[in-house]
Specification:
two-stranded antiparallel ribbon; single chain; alpha+beta; globular; 6 strands; 34% strand; four-stranded mixed beta sheet
Length: 122
């Protein structure tokens, strides 16, 4: 993706992943723009508090030059939160680096809903 294309990305889908590796939690934030085939990821926070304080660059409008920074805490309310083990995380990483398809992402998330245990409140 060249610089001109990067300027046009408006992030639409936010995914926050909590993965457990060797009894330690790690957080990763994914942002996807399906319309323009753009994607970003930020990773390796050790606590949820650190991640929520991270300031994410967000473009004000398509093709604009102005960028403002939002704390991750604002975006967290719109994001899909996933708690994944190593195998599921690898599947997510493979999907993230393939050509983007909204249908593939929806199928993956539906598959995770069947695999992940339901919370008692549901």
């Amino acid at each position: 993706m060249n610089q001109r294309q990067r300027k046009k990305i408006i992030l639409q889908q936010w995914i926050i992943v909590e993965r457990i590796e060797m009894d330690e939690e790690r957080y990763t934030l994914y942002a996807i723009d399906f319309q323009r085939q753009g994607r970003y990821s930020w990773s390796c926070w050790r606590s949820q508090e650190e991640m929520l304080q991270f300031r994410i660059p967000v473009r004000c409008k398509t093709g604009g030059t102005r960028i403002h920074y939002q704390p991750c805490a604002k975006i967290a309310s719109k994001a899909i939160w996933l708690a994944l083990d190593e195998e599921q995380y690898e599947q997510l990483e493979q999907l993230f680096y393939q050509p983007l398809s909204r249908n593939r992402w929806q199928a993956f998330l539906q598959h995770l809903n069947k695999v992940l245990p339901k919370s008692p409140s549901e």
